[in-house]
TrEMBL record:
Keyword terms: Kinase, Transferase
Alphabetized PANTHER family for the sequence: GLYCERATE KINASE (PTHR21599)
GO molecular function: kinase activity
Family of the protein in this entry: Belongs to the glycerate kinase type-1 family.
Protein name as annotated: Glycerate kinase
Length: 388
């Protein structure tokens, strides 16, 4: 059975493997991917040295990746996207916190089959940030992605002390659908600790807040927004940015056009208003997780995610892992559920060979339902090809 191979030359066997893969969405967490790959490799090479470093790009799974790397999980009760109380978590090590907005405000926090494009709020994400401050964090990596929301971070700002008021001086309704009524933004009550914290906006997208490539147009439909909803939300966020410009000056307009402002329904914009600096999510997470020293110890790197496709090349975890490994002169192979990239493109991304589950099990439904055992068989093939 053929595999996608970006090169034809044989290489010397590698004896220490670093597994730095993201989740297979809907099938396996990043931790489970590492466990299954390790199991398969060791069936062929029982004494193989394996180091697992599950990775994430700032979206859902980011806290889990940090905990797997030695951070402490901290649970906290916060508001979900519809206002219901949920138990969310952030990760803490020393004075560095990893906060994942999807833990509080992600699509997974909505009831099955329910979307709320106009009313879902990021208030709980702001509560998570406040909990990290309460825990003594001086650096906060704020991973954004997988959101149920398109409110420009308005709920988050409110949770941190901002007052977003309508013409009658009352708080506007939650969600992007309430922002057309915004008449005044008072940020004087924002938590003063934010001024002395290094807040890093970690995202795998660089969209602006509004317009054809903005948050509502590009990501709104994924959250249940109809074409009319998209138009409503885009106008609402543009109005929101205009009102914030009156409150904080020209930088509000600059932030709206900045890369990352449109991340996670525009919560990136709210984070920039708070003073965050934007960095590609996978770069931030590799730094936080200690990837560089682990890479130095490795002879072969195995990365991957559920689908290796065009999106992978634009800031997703496997592309970031492969770029760092290539710069260090390390060979990289990838595992995935499905593969939609030709060998030449894989090679340019720094991936020597890709092993999709669908080449071992052509039935896609079985690949999803039985991803773990199939991934172990794929890992056996990697071991025979590169390690035995």
């Amino acid at each position: 059975m053929q595999v996608a191979d970006a090169a034809v030359n044989d290489t010397r066997p590698a004896r220490r493997v670093l597994i730095a893969a993201d989740k297979f969405r809907g099938s396996l967490t990043a931790v489970q991917v590492a466990e299954r790959v390790t199991r398969g490799l060791r069936r062929v090479v029982p004494d193989l040295e394996v180091e697992a470093l599950p990775v994430a790009d700032g979206g859902d799974g980011t806290v889990d990746a940090a905990v797997a790397a030695g951070f402490e999980r901290r649970g906290v009760r916060v508001a979900g996207p519809l206002g219901q109380e949920v138990t969310a978590a952030f990760a803490l090590r020393g004075d560095t916190a990893v906060v994942e907005m999807a833990e509080a405000s992600g699509l997974q926090r909505l009831p099955a089959g329910v979307f709320a494009p106009l009313t879902a709020s990021t208030y709980g994400a702001g509560e998570l940030l406040r909990a990290a401050l309460d825990a003594g964090a001086r650096t906060i990596v704020f991973g954004v992605g997988g959101s149920a929301t398109t409110d420009g971070g308005a709920g988050m700002l409110s949770a941190l002390g901002a007052r977003l008021l309508d013409g009658g001086g009352e708080p506007v309704a939650p969600g992007g659908g309430g922002l057309p009524e915004l008449a005044r933004a008072d940020l004087s009550g924002l938590d003063p600790r934010l001024a002395s914290v290094d807040l890093v906006l970690a995202s795998d997208v660089d969209n602006p807040l509004t317009g054809p490539t903005g948050a509502p147009a590009v990501y709104g439909p994924q959250k249940g927004a109809s074409p009319n909803d998209v138009a409503t939300l885009d106008a609402a966020l543009a109005h929101y940015a205009k009102v914030l410009e009156e409150a904080v000056g020209p930088r509000a307009a600059q932030y709206a056009a900045s890369p990352g402002a449109g991340a996670a329904g525009g919560i990136g914009y709210g984070a920039l208003i708070l003073g965050a600096r934007f960095r590609p999510g996978i770069e931030v997470m590799l730094d936080v997780l200690g990837f560089a020293p682990a890479l130095e110890r490795a002879s072969l790197v195995i990365t991957g995610e559920g689908s290796l496709d065009e999106q992978t090349l634009h800031g997703k975890a496997p592309a970031g892992v492969a770029a760092a490994a290539r710069a260090a002169g390390k060979e990289v192979v990838a595992v995935c559920g499905r593969l939609a990239l030709p060998p030449a493109v894989l090679g340019r991304a720094g991936i020597r060979r890709a092993y999709p589950l669908t080449e071992t099990e052509p039935d896609v439904a079985r690949c999803i339902a039985e991803a773990g055992p199939i991934l172990e068989r794929v890992a056996e093939r990697i071991a025979r090809d590169f390690l035995a």
